[in-house]
Amino acid sequence: MLKSTPPRTTFHQDMTVEERNIMLEHIAYWTDKQNQGIALVFGPVLNPSAPHGLAVIEVEYEAQVPKLIAEDPAVIAGIMTTEFFPMIATLPK
Q: Does residue 92 register a pLDDT over 80?
């Protein structure tokens, strides 16, 4: 599970044009990962006191995760910080 934290709690309401363009790249990046079967689900969590992004991903090796995070356009731009938390789950396919 990935948790991405924006630079401020009002980010989803007051992004600059540059931030919005980077976030569109961020969405395209994770949509591509979803099309590849890596991102199972992703999107914003609009918790008023602590908004963040959430992604549930599936990779063969945990060592793949840092590269996925590092290549996220929002992380590259310094707009989001992303934490990784392993999940142990059995999901029907």
A: no
Taking 80 as the threshold, does the pLDDT of residue 82 lie above it? yes
Q: How far apart are CA 92 and CA 81, in angstroms?
A: 30
- CATH fold for the domain made of 2-84: Alpha-Beta Plaits (3.30.70)
Domain edges within the chain:
2-84
> What pTM value is reported for the model?
0.91
3-state secondary structure 55-87: EEECCCCHHHHHHHHHCCHHHHCCCCEEEECCC
Of 7, 21, 17, 8, the closest CA to residue 73 belongs to 21
